[in-house]
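Exercise 4. Each item below gives a protein and its sequence. For each, produce the structure-token representation.

Item: Putative DNA helicase (Schinkia azotoformans LMG 9581).
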Amino acid sequence: MSKQSIVTQQFFKDLFQLSKKEQKQVAKTIKLMEQDITHPSLNCHAVKGTPYHEVYVNMDIRIIFEFNEDLYVLFRAVHHDMLDRL
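Answer:
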């Protein structure tokens, strides 16, 4: 069963700071998340010590999100090194 995604204002801010190529990769990742969150390329896992999860967009960019039965709430789309500063 596929899920729907909603994005926060901060997610949009993050997205527009990425290159056009990276933005396309984020869009592709969101579609894959909605279809199959268990896909191995996403490497979906909980962010330790938080209520959030993350998936890989590529080797550098991560999407931070929460989810329930039928909805993903996308909070951030950031470079991996930024995660330590959040």
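Check: Helices lie at 9-16, 20-35.
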